[in-house]
Specification:
Blueprint lengths: L10 E5 L3 H14 L7 E4 L14 H18 L2 E7 L8 H12 L7 E4 L6 H4 L3 H7 L20 H8 L18 H10 L12 H12 L1
Parallel strand pairs: 1-2, 1-3, 3-4
Protein name: DUF4276 family protein
Organism: Plantactinospora mayteni
């Protein structure tokens, strides 16, 4: 969808908790929706985080963030916005946070799609053990998670760090996962053609993300 004939494609804006998450989400969105072309851009501001914002402060936050997005829209029309924030809790906590984000920004003139992994983005990386191994061959492949409900993993970032270490090794002697690896993992997921189901394990928050991207 490009609007009037001859008009440039509208921008898909990605907001997130940090650069690592934003870049990884951008890679995944671009692979799931190649029709969006080069119109995907990430922004450091606004930090559209609402999880711990009291209800009475949400309207003013949405107004401030909306002003920043309207400035972007003035330079290049926006098609939709993806807003990432970790649930920091097991499923179904992602559902409540998705609702809070999308309701908070419902007055914006563009669709807002919440990107909310159960606990943290690292929960999703457990879905793709082959991609993890491809990023660093020294990592072990955490195949013990096959078929499991990944949305029940607590502290998924720390769990992923431990899961990737071969038996008997220690973090001090072997480089394990760091947040900066997220974009590399996303690139390997795409390169190895792992985005299509069936997936290695279960993740309701991942399914919610895929659905929002494909329907955007």
């Amino acid at each position: 969808m490009t609007g009037k004939r001859g008009a440039p494609p509208r921008a898909v804006v990605i907001l997130g908790e940090d650069d690592n998450d934003r870049q990884a989400i951008k890679i995944l969105v671009a692979a799931l929706r190649p029709d969006l072309g080069t119109g995907i851009q990430t922004l450091r501001k606004p930090m559209a985080l609402v999880k711990n914002v009291p209800p009475e402060r949400l309207p003013s936050k949405a107004q401030r963030d909306g002003a920043l997005l309207r400035a972007v829209h003035a330079r290049k029309p926006i098609r939709c916005v993806f807003m990432h924030e970790d649930a920091d809790a097991v499923e179904p906590a992602h559902e409540r946070l998705i609702t809070k984000i999308e309701e908070c920004y419902s007055d914006l003139p563009w669709p807002v799609h919440a990107v909310v992994p159960a606990w943290e983005t690292e929960t999703w990386w457990f879905l793709f053990p082959k991609a993890l191994k491809a990023v660093r061959p020294s990592w072990r492949m955490p195949t013990e998670y096959a078929g499991r409900d990944l949305g029940r993993i607590r502290n998924s970032k720390e769990e992923l760090k431990k899961a990737l270490l071969p038996a008997g090794s220690k973090p001090a002697t072997l480089r394990t996962y760091a947040e900066a690896d997220s974009a590399l993992i996303a690139e390997k997921i795409v390169a190895l053609k792992l985005l299509a189901p069936p997936w290695f394990a279960k993740s309701a928050s991942w399914l919610a993300f895929v659905k929002k991207v494909t329907e955007a």
